[in-house]
């Protein structure tokens, strides 16, 4: 159909509920073509869905941030920097917890960490 893909096909391909694509449309993230009251996506819009899905799935990027990235507003680089900082912080927390637990395991003070000079 003129290089257009139905909403059902797009939803099935990406494992998304159709309601998610409707929501993304309402928020301006995707713009389907309409024929006989049905939604169809051209290649560019399918590509946008492919970009949006992992950003949303990761939980690190909200709809407004995704909209800023897709629209290339002035602050899109700030959005990327902020997300990268969040990812770095998320990676640092488990590493710090691991160091803490490793120290706890090795500490001569045992579970009485209030006596440990490094606590």
UniProtKB/TrEMBL annotation:
Xref: Gene3D superfamilies: 1.10.1660.10
UniProt keyword list: DNA-binding, Repressor, Transcription, Transcription regulation
Domain (HTH merR-type): residue spans on this chain: 4-72
Coiled-coil segments: none
A GO MF label: DNA-binding transcription factor activity
Protein name: DNA-binding transcriptional MerR regulator
